[in-house]
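Researcher: I'm preparing a figure for a lab meeting and need a structural model of a single chain. I don't have an experimental structure, so a prediction will have to do for now. The sequence is pasted below. Please return the structure as tokens so I can convert it later.
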Amino acid sequence: MVEIGVIGGDGIGQEVVHAGMRVLEAAAGQEPGLELSFTEFPWGCEYYLEHGRMMPEDGLDTLAGCDAIYLGAVGWPTVPDHVSLWGLLLPIRRAFDQYVNLRPARLLQGVKSPLAAPDDLDITVVRENTEGEYSDSGGRVYRDTPHEIAVQESIFTRRGVERIIRYAFEEAESRRGLLVGATKSNGISITMPFFDEIFREISSEFPDVEASLMHADALAARLVLAPGSFDVVVGSNLFGDLLSEVTAAIAGAIGIAPSANLNPEGVYPSLFEPIHGSAPDIAGDGVANPAGAIWAGSLMLDHLGHHDTGARVLSALEETLASGTKTSDLGGSASTDEMTDSVVRRLEDNH
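Model: Understood. Here is the structure written out token by token.
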């Protein structure tokens, strides 16, 4: 039995994660011996408004018993973003040492890129996920005076940088053998040269990978101008976050893109989610795009060792999109349920 902890979270998060659960159950039913058990936790901004915290004190202990975690979305207008993020998602990432944030992006059949000629678009962004610029180190002094000062420190450890870069080299080695490291050492004079040095050190271990460093701003422009020239991109927490939004956008829509927060060693559970937000403006309308959550579910199955079943989920999703069954953000008219029904139907038809 595979135990999956489910946090629907806020807004459309509840809608897309339930769509994903339907698809996962349908796929699991076709693999002998694969049984999925979902346990839902009502944590998020609504929980915060009632209890003063995003999850209970023993929330991490509860999740530690899961084989994987499936998340919808977190965030709501009445709760500050730094409260919702630092109260739920970031503690999970850090407590479970999910130091790899894997964000694949490719042009799926039936999805139109905003680029005129996107060529072959198949890019994986490997983002450092537990330190870097998103470190809770610093503070504010002289609050509410003209002399107020805010200081935020980035934390880059050799262990943290080495392991994310090595993971990215291994990912590139298993794909087309191209790796670009996102840097900004011309402007950030300490942490980025440190990142660059380690990148070059590790590159000697992978002679079959064509590796290079590129300034993050130029890299962002190049991703738009020539996406087909990229295979794997590795970046710090901030740069990886920003660049993966670019790759998701050029692949057609943020609503399609998945994200895997991985503890590669399997000591702790990994977390899988779409990268889109909670979209309060359409929450409850039944029109949310479930593609990102479904693709995230495919990544979860793959991570858990059910590679063929994960591939079938992604294939059924792509066939659905290619058939024209799409939500409005992709130019279609299907509801969340209609699109999910179509994916489930294709899984059953292809079995």
